[in-house]
Amino acid sequence: MRIGELLLLHERVDPWVLTNTLKGQAPTRQRLVSLLISRAQLDPDDGAMLLREQLGYPAAMQRHLERADRSLLSLFPPELGARWVILPLGRARTGAIVVAARDPTPILTAALEHITKQSIVLAVTPSLQLEKLVRAAYGVALPADEPLPESPPTLSEIGNARIDDVLPLPIRRARTVSYHLNGMDLPDRPQRAVAPIDEILRDIDRAITPATAERIVMTYVARRWKTALLARINGDVALGVRGHGPRLMKAELVTVPLMSPSLISLARDTGRLTTELPSSASQTQLTDLLESPRTPIAAPVLVADKVHSVLAVGDAHIGSDSRGELDRLADALGWAYERSVR
Predict the structure, then answer these.
(1) What is the reported pTM?
(2) 3-state DSSP helix/strand/coil percent for the chain, to nearest 5?
(3) Domains located in the chain, CATH noted
């Protein structure tokens, strides 16, 4: 699916904004997602998640880019790092190197593995942020306003790997590189103004126990949405863990059957954020618990690439779109759960 179609499907931009951006895109020489980010019309992490859905590679979020392990830069020749627009982020728990790439492909994976003689996990992120980091890391001589050229690796650069071995993509990948990365130390840098969601994500990343991470998530959720339910998937039922709202004061007593379709069952089955409202007894129960919201949302919390829990919310306290925030919270919470089971 084209990235413009995904932007509209997930309602990340207004159709009028998208149309006008496309009309003026050619002279800028920027890719659509990066152009929208540069105009403050799209959140960078939302852009990364859309690229993840389009290309099938895990998303490298802003917090992953900020904590990139600079010691890994020496593994890649500067001319190739700049040419292929790549940036190593860290070590996966398997020992593989996690690399953010502007244009991730199986051939690029093979070429990087041929150079480093190590396993590579590629991730995708908007070109706007990545190109700035690549310029700084490899000392690119091109002017700052000049996009880095598209020069992907050729078949001669993948060594002895057969094309049949490197082309197929897994049916399903982790949503973000949080699933792959080992714990990353926070970088030493001057304090800067950050959005509340970014502060919360950092607090979740620092949480020592899953219970602490849940409390941080639900504290933010209570400020952002009128009602919410965090439910753990247990076979054919979702068991309440924590809640926010008049009817969710004792969330641990809530049980939502999953044999009947609902926001929670759809998030579990698809592994992605959903706003679809099926007509069923389970959905009626969930709608009641969430105080009959106009625009409820549910996001899956993945652990080891399986849906561990679902975070469902009612209407936001303010009118701005909150789906991107919910998706990011669910991802960070999943990473907190993942750390606890290692």
Answers:
(1) 0.59
(2) 45, 15, 40
(3) 3-44 (no CATH), 62-179 (no CATH), 196-340 (3.30.450.40)
